[in-house]
Amino acid sequence: MTTCIEMHDDVAVIALDNPPVNGLSLGVRRSLLDQLTACSVNPAVSSIVLTGAGKHFSAGGDLREFGTDNQNTPPFPTEILRFMDDLRKPIVAAIKGVAVGGGLELAMGCHYRVAVPDAKIGLPEITLGLLPGAGGTQRLPRLTGMGTASEMILTGSVQIAEKLRQTGLFDEIDAEDVVGAAIRLARAKASQDVAHKRARDLTVDPEEAKESLAHWKNTLSSHPSKEAAQLCIQALQNAVRLPFDEAIAQERKFFLQLIASPESKRLRESFLQKRAGTGGDS
User: Fold this and answer.
1) Average pLDDT, stretch 124-128?
2) Do residues 110 and 139 make contact, with C-beta atoms less than 8 angstroms apart?
3) Per-residue pLDDT tens digits for 23-64
4) How far apart are CA 239 and CA 97, in angstroms?
5) How confident is the model at residue 87 (pLDDT cuts 50, 70, 90)?
6) C-alpha distance from residue 142 to each of 84, 106, 131, 137, 166 (Å)
7) Residue 113, φ and ψ in degrees, nearest 5
8) What is the DSSP letter of 19?
9) Which one of the listed residues 6, 65, 79, 125 is annotated catalytic?
10) How many CB atoms lie within 10 A of CB 82?
11) Is the pLDDT at 281 greater than 50, yes or no?
12) CB 89: neighbour CB atoms within 10 A?
């Protein structure tokens, strides 16, 4: 449960390596931050590509760690994403397979994103009585617009990358060689003397946000995860109302509140039991 790194001339390719779906366990988080730190100070590295070993980018947090000491041990995903935000070297996500939950949040923390057309993309935390806890409620609406972001977050739906092509979430869709395309993009961006794109620096259209969130407020009484939905809406409103770092802190507060809730505990236990019964993994 770690990450591996390969050099392609001046581009470092870091691969999350935690089979079968590269869950972001404590070991992976530690290894990833170590690799990013090493690349940031290595003069031979001009840029970074982040991908997943095997078939997938990442399915996000390891549910087996939720509520344990590992979940509460740094580095936290938000710390890694803040480090990525501050990188002076461009970092490109090469997305294949699944990029859901914390996996998508990690990809959104990169400066640029390349995906295969059939990559599965989503923030399904609400189906477990949670909300995205590593910047998803802040970065997704900045990248896709509030209409798309609120629907994805409040329904927990997973979509293929091709359907999100026009949203601004991806810089390229490449069906042939997603890592190769990401390497080319990373090298091109490294050669440009410009500030690299950060989702945190984008803004959300307040009128679109008002209209989209009003719609979801009207559905709260019948929402299957009412408490989580209410906090998702508040977190999404903060994308318009608050500075980014304050909104991130509020999102984290809401996440910890929900993870301790009886509803989320019940839903997570049910999910893990079903997965064990089918021989699956996180």
Assistant:
1) 94
2) no
3) 999 999 999 999 999 999 999 999 999 999 999 999 998 777
4) 29
5) very high
6) 17, 15, 17, 9, 14
7) -140, 130
8) T
9) 125
10) 16
11) no
12) 20
Per-residue tokens: 122 = 């989503």
Task: Say whether pLDDT at 77 is over 50.
Answer: yes
**Residue the block writes with tokens 């059939």:** 118
> Cβ-count burial of 53 within 10 angstroms (0-12 exposed, 13-18 middle, 19+ buried)?
middle
Residue 105: active-site member: yes
Residue with tokens 């992976």: 28
DSSP three-state, residue 263: helix
- CA atoms of 235 and 249, how far apart (whole Å): 10
Q: Can you give the pLDDT at residue 62? A: 79
Please pick, among 6, 65, 79, 105, the residue that the annotation labels catalytic.
105
Predicted TM-score (pTM) above 0.85: yes
d(CA 3, CA 12): 12
As a whole number of angstroms, the distance between CA 105 and CA 84 comes to 12
pLDDT at res. 1: 46
ω into residue 262 within 30 of 0, thus cis? Answer: no
Scan for tokens 């399915």, then name that residue.
Answer: 59
Q: What is the rounded CA–CA span in Å between residue 60 and residue 37? A: 21
pLDDT at 273: 79
> Which two tokens mark 39?
């690349």
Residues 218-251 have pLDDT tens digits of 988 888 889 999 999 999 999 999 999 999 999 9
Residue that the structure tokens 């209410």 belong to = 230
Please answer whether residues 131 and 149 qualify as being in contact, where contact means their C-beta atoms are separated by less than 8 angstroms.
Answer: no
Helix (H, G, I), strand (E, B) or coil at 77: helix
Query: To the nearest whole number, what is the mean pLDDT of the chain?
Result: 93
